[in-house]
Amino acid sequence: MSTAPGGVRRSPVPLYSQIEQHLRERIASGELPPQTQIDSETEIASSFSVSRMTARKAIESLVREGLLFRSQGKGTFVNDRRISYGLSTQLSFSASMEARGHRVETTVVDASLQRAPAGVAHAMNVEPGSPVVGVRRIRCIDGSPAALHESWLPASLISVLDTDLTGSLNAAMTSLGRSVTIARDHVEAVEATPDVASALECELGAAVLRVRGVGINASGEIQRYTEAHYRGDRFSFALATGEPGDVQLQIKP
Question: How many Cα neighbours within 13 Å face the side chain of 206?
């Protein structure tokens, strides 16, 4: 790594953030392409004249973000160009992707009052065939279909159909006084069905990540059930323990 840019210590931005930004810019410019090993904590600390703890904090932040990954006994490397996205369906897809510089477009395929299929009814604790609000959307990243989001809400939230559904569904729900405070999600790798393959423009049977979960309000009432499919060649999910919004992956029996 080249020496730290002049004036790095004169900035009011914390030192670890300056190192983090320096690495992020080198990755974004292609100077550090995917699979490239970055300098060690000791080398980075020496380049920036900081402690190893400060260097480690910067690296760990980029690892959590998905830009870097650690290989046991080998070092830290630049990740491939998959999109990193927090697992919780509370997180705004658009905000998360746009924050990383991606162009997001949403196509609302369907938004209507429907009869709850058996699986949806079970997840929402209602009788099969009960009226629910269904929202089906295809999310495109930089012009290419990347995710299929399907959500079902209680019929009492039918007014959500009058809101802009190309953005955050949770934000729309919050605007109607129906905030989601807890999300309980499960993720698994599955093969793309004809329906999913068509929506995501991928091959039938291609690997996709399926996230299913419910959104619950402060009173413990289910406000949303979501099934989301993400192209496996474009997404990875990050696990950050010991922080708010931790993600827990469960092994299926």
Answer: 19
Q: Which two tokens stand for residue 130?
A: 């009960």
Residue 223 has pLDDT above 60, yes or no: yes
State the first-to-last Cα distance of the chain, in angstroms, to the nearest integer. Answer: 46
| Whole-structure pTM value | 0.64
* Structure tokens given for 67: 């830009």
Of how many residues is the chain composed? 253
Domains of the chain: 8-78 (1.10.10.10), 83-236 (3.40.1410.10)
Residues 13 and 58: their CA atoms lie apart, in Å, by 13
What stretch of H or E contains 44?
helix 41-48
Q: How many other β-carbons are positioned within 10 Å of the β-carbon of residue 230?
A: 23
Angle between helices 52-65 and 41-48 (to 10 degrees): 120
Contact predicate 191/207, CB 8 Å:
yes
Using one digit for the tens of pLDDT, what is the confidence trace for 24-76? 889 888 899 888 899 999 999 999 999 999 999 999 888 766 678 777 678 88
Looking only at the bridges linking them, the beta strands covering 222-231 and 144-154 are: antiparallel
Which run of H or of E encompasses 216? strand 207-216
pLDDT tens-digit map of 86-130:
555 555 677 677 766 778 899 999 999 999 999 999 999 999 999
